[in-house]
Design a protein that fits this description.
homodimer, alpha/beta
């Protein structure tokens, strides 16, 4: 599998949520033959309506594929798809698994070892950037694994990434970088929500707060991105509260195992848990703002929770 | 006091720390006659060496001034300078006090009312951006107060600001915006330190982490700014730990008074307090990373604390 291969490369894209769907489109635009797979019929229908050849089971999607890109929720789903779902037996013997789900470095190492035992190459390959950048082929893609495997995967990665890193030969390094990113991303989302709710409590004009903070030292990527959802009162899920319950949970699991204190990540995790507990687990992760609104009886845009 | 006034406007700049010194230079460059005041002889000497006409007491600096810019630590120092230090009796009767210290909206209102009772105009005028931007005349300046007072102060503000906001006629509104910014800034500094120490615990290359996160969704203004201090192991104070003990203390005071929960700001405050308690109160606020290093015995650059 190289950029100059005479045949059109075949890619299985497993997991067609907002990230996976955008990545599938980027791969199609780059000229790959893409077969999509997702367990959720409504997601498959939506992907098909969006021009993706979807509806295969995992093994069928992977049959003879040069690369299998997994964009599922976590390590457990990745493991199920690859080893129970038959991907490892279906992919081309010299194909490569590009594993994009956020997981702990330990899980990444374990899954890579299982794939290697089955004779299949595996690249630790978490992603950052959100659905809009996924659709543009403009993700930040972090990878680690042997250089030869990175080289094999490179044409596929280039089609999905604006910024592509190979962070080392050791599986798990990219996963660790992603966990550091998620620690910050989760704290910043919750902080944006705390700050905007505080601003509302002080009777400030939220749109003006959003504008001023975006140009001040208090700004963050997440404040600008998720703050816009809060200002608009739009909690349709781009990325759900449950994703950060999961990701900050992994951060705290690793931190506890390493005997490392991470009080800000721990506090943010509790805020996402409270938001999920209050019935908003499947809503946009900016719903932490609605948790504050519910507690403090603030009249945020779209702030009412429930029917 | 207008831009077309025939005489050179006279400005007293009270508080010549890294922010005030930079602002004084911006005002000199803009053609104002600037007289500087600071209680600390070493700061006065340094300002004089930097070309600022400094060394006056507050009342002398303010005598006949068109504007007095106060850039001291907090509301208490601002009040002492203005009312015990004789500024209010010395400034031109139609002069304006431009109050830049971070303080609660309630304190801003109280000081403005005292100035008004003495017949002097007062503008609530907190600043954001750090010493480098202060020196360039490129601060973000937030103001609130009656439009006529804003208009009077405008030439002075324009000389210091790249981005200038007039956020309303009511004193205290700008102070409240600044508190929202400080909530985020404080949480983001502490989160950057938590994340970089966590990355070190995971044996990641910190310079690479800094580069990758700066281009990912986990980035923030503070991660990019203070993260560079951590990577360089440089804890010479641009802004000291004690500043965020103060500012997040004000945030938590307001939040408690308003019966508003702010758990992330509260956790960050505890981290700054721990860092101050461990002997780093006067060091750069990125020293929170050295607190984590001390607790977890991490070998951060410049991470050792104390002699």
């Amino acid at each position: 599998m190289t950029a100059s291969a005479p045949q059109r490369l075949e890619i299985a894209l497993i997991g067609l949520g907002s990230m996976g769907f955008g990545m599938a489109n980027s791969l199609v635009r780059a000229g790959f033959a893409v077969r999509g797979c997702d367990l959720r019929p409504e997601i498959v229908a939506s992907a098909r309506a969006g021009g993706i050849d979807a509806g295969f089971d995992a093994a069928t999607a992977a049959l003879g594929a040069d690369a299998v890109v997994t964009v599922v929720v976590n390590a457990a789903q990745t493991e199920t798809v690859l080893f129970d779902g038959g991907v490892v037996g279906a992919i081309k013997p010299d194909g490569v698994i590009i594993s994009c789900a956020t997981m702990s470095p330990g899980d990444a190492k374990r899954l890579a070892a299982k794939a290697e035992a089955a004779g299949i190459s595996y690249l630790d390959s978490p992603i950052s950037g959100g659905a809009a950048r996924a659709a543009e082929g403009a993700l930040t893609v972090l990878t680690s694994g042997p250089a030869a495997i990175f080289a094999k995967a490179r044409p596929v990665l280039d089609a999905m990434a604006e910024t592509l890193y190979h962070l080392g030969d050791e599986i798990g390094v990219a996963a660790a970088f992603k966990m550091v990113n998620q620690l910050l991303a989760g704290v910043h989302i919750a902080a944006a929500c705390e700050a905007l709710a505080f601003a509302k409590k002080l009777n400030l004009d939220l749109a003006k707060v959003y504008e001023v903070i975006s140009r001040s030292a208090g700004s963050s990527w997440m404040f600008q991105n998720r703050g816009a959802h809060v200002i608009a009162g739009d909690y349709a899920p781009r990325s759900a509260v449950e994703i950060f319950v999961k990701d900050l949970g992994i951060v705290e699991d690793i931190a506890r195992a390493e005997r490392f204190p991470a009080p800000l990540a721990g506090t943010a995790l509790q805020l996402f848990l409270m938001t999920a507990s209050a019935g908003m687990g499947r809503d946009d992760d900016a719903s932490v703002a609605r948790l504050y609104a519910k507690i403090a009886e603030l009249d945020l845009p779209g702030g009412a929770v429930g029917p």
